[in-house]
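Quick illustration, no need to memorize.
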Amino acid sequence: MKQVSAAAVMVWVFAVLLGAAGPDRKYIVLPSVVASKAPFSDAVLKGDTLYVSGHIGIDQKTGKPGATPEEEARLVMESVKRAVEAGGMSMDDLVSVTVFCSDVSHYDAFNSVYRTYFHDNYPARAFIGSGKLLFGARFEVQGIAVKRGQ
């Protein structure tokens, strides 16, 4: 009988726990006027977990952020929603959201829009004052979604 080292067993256990032995990843790249050549995916699906990259609220017609904080919040949440739906999930599958904000005085404006994207419970969330964001955006939102059982 062949003997297996403890290190080999530990590597296998960690590979299984981390999902390396599971199904392949699905990379989601959505059309965008801003990030068409950016070196990242909009989201990555691994099993029942979707990792959503940071999205900003850019108007796809103008290539600029929304004119008001509320308009930009709607644009960024619509962008996140498109990525989540492309992963076969809904906004209610989000379990964690991080919001980066260039000026935390926009907190209430962001929340007035954000709350309309969920039906029952909200995901865990951090709202972080970040300083300047790319393309003059006020908000950048990233998240993690886990598909709920049917």
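The first strand starts at residue 25 and ends at 28.
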